[in-house]
Design brief:
Largest sheet: 6 strands, mixed
Number of strands: 10
CATH class of the largest domain: Alpha Beta
Strand order of the largest sheet: 1-2-3-5-7-10
Mean pLDDT: 95
Number of helices: 11
CATH architecture of the largest domain: Alpha-Beta Complex
Number of domains: 2
Strand content: 15-25%
Distance between the termini: 21 Å
Order of helices and strands: EEHEEHHEEHEEHHEHEHHHH
Shape: globular
């Protein structure tokens, strides 16, 4: 996949093994329209195929990660229009990204923006972050995973309040209820998120991929099926060069040199 595409709504760069995708519609508080999501997914898939990238970071700016979907594009849509529109399918494509994806959230992460953050594997939140699903205020409900991922993250009672009454979660509340990994000062949120992602990027690539698959299975299968999958993936890693390298490095007290093989 070529990485020389010209983007209009996002910025992309690489830093210390981390592929960084930054939403760049500041006047619209990074509202997510079809064009923006198309660019986001293109960039994520580009980094997923890049051997120099071990972890991907998705972010916005200090004021807003993404303050929802672009309502103007949906206001007059029919059910068939929505069915034929690839917009929500972009969230499913994010779910299929193999490498770990970290969201760095500052300010508003609302509606589709909250769903975008929750579709990532981990979230680093600025102390100013606010998470919410306010679709009820415009006569609909979340449609890109908001009801499902929020309920799995914070539990039924709080998810009901968020979806049915438009309640926002502060960064500290999101941390308390397990929606985010950590909360950091607003002025340092991107720097800290890149450091976090770089630590992950430095791990064994194949193990990262299979570890992500195994944890995700915990939310989608029975315990018995999840344990069986975990064991198969664990055994599979003993066919990799990285397993031998990692264990030899541990025994000989030296840094491991991963090959991703």
């Amino acid at each position: 996949m070529s990485n020389d595409k010209v983007f209009e709504n996002i910025l992309v760069r690489k830093d210390d093994g981390v592929g960084i995708v930054q939403l760049n519609r500041p006047k619209a508080l990074n509202a997510l329209n079809k064009e923006t999501m198309g660019e986001v997914i293109f960039a994520l898939e580009m980094f997923d195929a890049d051997d120099e990238v071990g972890c991907i970071l998705l972010t916005g700016n200090e004021r807003a990660f993404a303050a929802g979907a672009d309502i103007k594009q949906m206001a007059t849509a029919t059910p068939v229009d929505m069915l034929n529109n690839p917009f929500i399918d972009y969230w499913d494509r994010l779910r299929r990204i193999v490498k770990p994806v970290v969201a760095a959230v500052s300010g508003y992460a609302l509606g589709g923006g909250c769903e975008l953050a929750m579709a990532c594997d981990m979230i680093i939140a600025s102390e100013t972050a606010k998470f919410g699903q306010p679709e009820i205020n415009i006569g609909v409900i979340p449609g890109a995973g908001g009801t499902q991922r929020m309920a799995r993250a914070v539990g039924k009672a709080l998810a009901m309040e968020i979806v049915l009454n438009g309640r926002f979660l502060s960064a500290d509340e999101a941390l308390l209820h397990g929606l985010v990994n950590r909360v950091v000062p607003a002025e340092l949120y991107l720097e800290e998120a890149i450091k976090f992602a770089a630590e992950i990027a430095a791990r064994a690539p194949v193990a990262l991929r299979l570890g992500k698959e195994a944890v995700n299975a915990a939310y989608e299968t029975s315990l018995q099926a999840g344990l069986a999958l975990e064991r198969r993936l664990f055994y599979m890693l003993f066919a990799t060069d990285d397993q031998r390298e990692g264990m030899d490095a541990f025994i000989n007290k030296r840094p491991a040199e991963w090959k991703g093989q």
